[in-house]
Amino acid sequence: ALIPKSAIERAHNGMMIRYADNHLLQSLSPLFKSFFSQVSNCEALSEHLSGLHHEMNKLENLLTNLPDFRQRNLQTGDICLATILFYVIELTEWFGKQQIMVHFPVVSNWWQWVRQTKAVANTIEEMSEGHNALIARLTGAPA
Fold first, then answer.
1. What is the pLDDT of residues 58-106, one digit of tens each?
2. Whole-angstrom Cα distance, residue 128 to residue 91?
3. Whole-angstrom Cα distance, residue 80 to residue 87?
């Protein structure tokens, strides 16, 4: 049920998966490295956050140009994108860029839409719990 039946819908789904894996996730890699190293390099961090912002602009355009997500069922591309977008939000907040989603209204609407699916909401909640436990372990703070 997560893979669309029509060829065009499968192509759109594939675009979402490839974008999430090959673009958005790749722009997060340097931020993950900074997160785990806990070494502050303001110039590099600013460059990495700028790259992520650029990728979020591309996602905004992609979601704007694809058929309206509210008019279809959840697909594998949505699930792939949701797990990566969770870390976009978490890492940008970690590095002091609060509420990144306000700059991307279509992505924000999609984020609200995808989390209406109970399985996705539960998965994001479990990811949040795991992420918070990791932060507690890294910082020595209670979980």
1. 999 999 999 999 999 999 999 999 999 999 999 999 888 888 999 999 9
2. 12
3. 12
Return d(Cα 18, Cα 25) in angstroms, integer. Answer: 10
7-19 vs 76-94: helix crossing angle, rounded to 10 = 20
Q: Which residue has the tokens 């140009």?
A: 65
- The whole-angstrom separation of Cα 13 and Cα 22 is 14
Residue 52, C-beta contacts closer than 8 angstroms, at least 6 positions apart: 27, 28, 31, 88, 92
User: Do residues 101 and 111 touch, judged by C-beta distance below 8 A?
Assistant: yes
What's the start-to-end Cα distance of the chain, in Å? 37
Q: Which amino acid is at 77?
A: G
Q: What residues contact residue 121 under an 8 Å CB cut-off, 6+ apart?
A: 115
**How many Cα atoms within 13 Å fall on the side-chain side of residue 143?**
9
pTM over 0.85: yes
Residue labelled with tokens 């932060």: 135
Helix, strand or coil, per DSSP, at residue 89: helix
3-state secondary structure of 26: helix
